[in-house]
Fold these 2 entries.
Entry 1:
Amino acid sequence: MSFSEYYTLVTLSIGGLVLWSMVFLAIQRVQSFTPREKMTATIVSAVLLFGYFFVALLVAGVFNFFAAEPNRFPRIPLGATVAIIIGIMVFRTPTFHKILNNMPITWLLAWVSIRLIGISFVVGYHQGKLPGIFAIPLGYGDVVFGVTAPVVAYWYAKQKTGYYPLAIIWSLLSVLDILVSGTIAVFNQSSPIQQVSFNAAIQGLDACKNLGPLCDVVSISRTVNQPNVDMVTVFPLVMNPIFGMPVLMTVEMFTLWYLFKATYLKQTAKNAKYFLA
């Protein structure tokens, strides 16, 4: 197992354990829960998180369900969508809202440091195994957001200047980076809808040669030989897009909901104070 593969599995495992620990502690903070309700919520949260992790391990590792094939549409979006739908369904329950309201927003902000998992993509890019169009925005983007997550959480906890807009803008940029990179990954793997892959440049190579000195054959040849993201669709790296990314997106949605709710309540209180004055 290569460094990238080992690092991906270890990081996802640690991230999952830390996230569940955060949920467990938040459950204990809910004063309206009876001991039985706390036990039930703890078990359900563990089943949802770790159950999905092991199902993803089974489907991706044993059945190789998400592996890219030239004659098959990408299946990774299916796995990611299922996870996000589950997250939204959980989010709609009153019980989860009680738990989320007892989880400090700084915990959610700091947990995004799991995005340091992107180091595996950076390593893959420098080893020539992943294309720059995918690895640079996602890999380096992951590292940037992973490193700054504790800083943003600390800034928010201390309520320093601009802590609210900083947390919101930072979270929105994090989501945007994930969405853009995820889209590139879908179109850059072997499939009938492959459109962004650098391998498509081979179609214009012969036509370019007819232009004589205007055609940079060397540069185009290098482009043609660029790898695609097929290795990310195979276990264990595929655990990132079908488990890590959906869970991260779900946490980011919870964070943004929390932030916008706090902003709304703050503005409502300010307006009430103004009209009652």
Entry 2:
Amino acid sequence: MGGQACVFYGAAEFSRDLDLLIQADETNLAKLAEAFAELGAEVIAVPPFHLQRGHAVHLRCRAGPVAGLRIDLMASLRGVAQFEELWARRVTIEVAGEAVDVLAIEDLVRAKKTQRDKDWPMIRRLMEQRYFESGADPSPDLVRFWLRELRTPELPIDLSTRHVELAREEATRRPAVQAALRGLPDDVTAALESEERDERLRDRGYWAPLKREPQSCVCTGGRSYRSGPSRRFLYLWRLPCGHGSAIPPRGGCRTARRPNRPAPLDC
């Protein structure tokens, strides 16, 4: 779902890690624990909190050819659909004879709308790649997608000239398309910059309470999964609210050993 997915779509990016979006039910987490044990994967940051609430789990692999690889694990993303819907429209790519499932490009673009500086140039490259590799007769749905997401100012202008009616429809939802219909590149640029600022603010607003949760959640115990000779344990913990959480670091959850911590947030 991250940089590696962008590479698969032809928008080259050097990525030092592997981002995975998972369905965080108990059966799936048990399977992940077994897979991570084979990779010698150890939690390195932000683990002891509920994946479904939006937290990420970060792991580092220690085994063989993947030694040093970082894996970032998430179960939900801001601004995109739930896992079941994303899975239904995933794209499967064959790599070295193996099937690799990646987010559909529409979902990948939405997921990249974050507060991070590096994500916005990637959205632009993804959309340019999609735009220029398509044929001379794109479908109406594809044109609408371009009109909603293109971030290179001259391209919405060109597109609006060739697909006026569709552009008028999308202009009711996107000021950048309104400016494109008027043929004003400076106004298109200003509208795109405004969009980016708004999305960055929304992303900060989404993460602000999540960053505070680690100070409030208290793990009350859990069950462990063990696989392989490495004897590493990955835990599926349960919070007092009854929800399953992610995977705590070796040695257990530090907050569980601090009884004076505040009660957990309501779920």
